[in-house]
Amino acid sequence: MPKLPNEEPGGLVDRPVVAQAAPGLRFALYREEIDAAIARVIASGRYILGAECQAFEGEFARLLGAPFVIGVNSGADALSLALQSIGVEPGQEVIVPAMTAAATAIAVRRIGAAVRLVDVETGTRGLDPGALEDAISSYTAAVIVVHLHGTPARLPEIRRVASARGVAVVEDCAQAHGATIDGRTVGTLSDAAAFSFYPTKNLGALGDGGAIVLHNQQHAQRARQLRNYGLGTGNVCSLVGMNSRLDEIQAAVLRVLLPHLSAENQQRRMFALRYDQALAPLAARGRLRLPKQDAGGVYHQYAIEVPERDIVRDRLLKLGIQTGVHYSPGLHRHPALGDASTVPCQVTDRLAATLLSLPIQPELMEHQPRIVEALEQVLGEG
Fold first, then answer.
1. Is 356 a residue whose pLDDT tops 80?
2. What is the pLDDT of residues 244-283, one digit of tens each?
3. How many Cα atoms are found within 13 Å in the side-chain-facing hemisphere of 49?
4. Nearest by Cα to 351 from 201, 194, 158, 146
């Protein structure tokens, strides 16, 4: 782990920092299997769209309970290609929650569609069904539902609103590998879904990677063409596609890690439960607000709401606890993506100013008492 620098005079001495995310620790647990998988790919002589990618697509599809999974180069590509595969066209509009990664909106813009940003709701921190209903227009072709931090959004309500207006629903599951709603796995509850395998995700590769989930064979075939330049039968380009293929090494690594996903998600739930219990007194005193408990969540992040977040974050770092700030400001305040003067997103603004992500990776659980102690010290100062 990294060390804090010496501070003079009489300041902090060198000591390990508890990282907010440390994917290298996970890879180290399975290093022998990962090395063997990579060696297998090298020996095969097939490095793109080979047996490893095909096998991973099938294994991930079985875990999700989905008919079609198509491996691609990244989560952002997965979103773009998912939208194109179900028929979203340039000039149409896609609704996106303001509290998410910029990649969600950029994926829409890349295919020539317009982005309409809407606010999120307090509980799940996901898209507000009421805001969705108000935002749908005659140009709206789809809505992207982000399961933020691994907490499922209110998808059943969102689907009812969207279906009544003829709007497709696409799930952004970049942070929700293995999450469930009423026992069904997210990514299988919509017209299409996208997953990211960025290294810090609950299921992360050694580099970028992603996957599209589809339910219609025609849509799946279209996605396979689009990821490979649009080439179809006879190697003829019948669609304008792109180069977005999950490479064999990343697929092989993901096959090593996939069988451990359920157990690691359960460890994250335990990590979160211990936070809930330990931090309840601070929450009762109004010093912080805990994330929503959800039995189907997978806690990609454990993000508390804290007043004076940036001050708290700096003080925690001085005590050797690294935290994360994600999606601040909201997308409606990004000049290239939104216009805060015409898109009021009050809940997003509040969350963007107060959310603080604590370490939640299973390999860091041994440091949880130290993290809680540091929070108690910092939040007890003012």
1. yes
2. 999 999 999 999 999 999 999 999 999 999 999 999 999 9
3. 9
4. 146
Reported confidence tier of residue 6, pLDDT bands at 50, 70, 90: very low
- From the centroid of its chain, how far is CA 195? 7
Both tokens assigned to 94: 């896609």
Decide if domain 261-379 falls under CATH 1.25.40.20. Answer: no
Q: Report how far residue 325's alpha carbon sits from residue 29's, in angstroms, rounded to the nearest whole number.
A: 27
Q: Are 137 and 118 in contact (CB under 8 A)?
A: no
DSSP 258: G
In this prediction, residues 142-150 reach a mean pLDDT of 98
Q: In one letter, which amino acid is 314? A: D
- pLDDT, tens only, 155-191: 999 999 999 999 999 999 999 999 999 999 999 999 9
In the predicted model, what is the mean pLDDT of the chain? Answer: 94
Sign of the dihedral defined by the CA atoms of residues 336, 337, 341, 345, in that order = negative
Residue 250 to residues 47, 346, 379, Cα–Cα distance (Å):
10, 40, 42
Q: State the pLDDT at residue 382.
A: 47
Structural domain boundaries of the chain?
28-259, 261-379
Cβ atoms 101, 327 nearer than 8 A: yes
User: What pLDDT sits at residue 10?
Assistant: 38
Q: Which residues contact 365 (CB under 8 A, 6 or more apart)?
A: 267, 270, 271
Could you give the C-alpha distances from 217 to 41, 61, 73, 167, 250, in angstroms and in order? Answer: 29, 14, 21, 20, 25
Q: Report H helices in 184-308.
A: 217-227, 248-257, 261-284
Place of tokens 């370490």: 359
Quote the tokens at residue 56.
Answer: 């991973």
The amino acid sitting at 65 is G
What's the CATH code, domain 28-259?
3.40.640.10
C-beta of residue 80 within 8 angstroms of C-beta of residue 111: yes
Assigned token pair, 275: 């936070």
| 168-172 vs 180-181, strand pairing mode | unpaired
Q: Is the pTM of this model over 0.85?
A: yes
The tokens describing 86, both together, are: 């179900």
In contact, 191 and 103? CB cutoff 8 Å: no
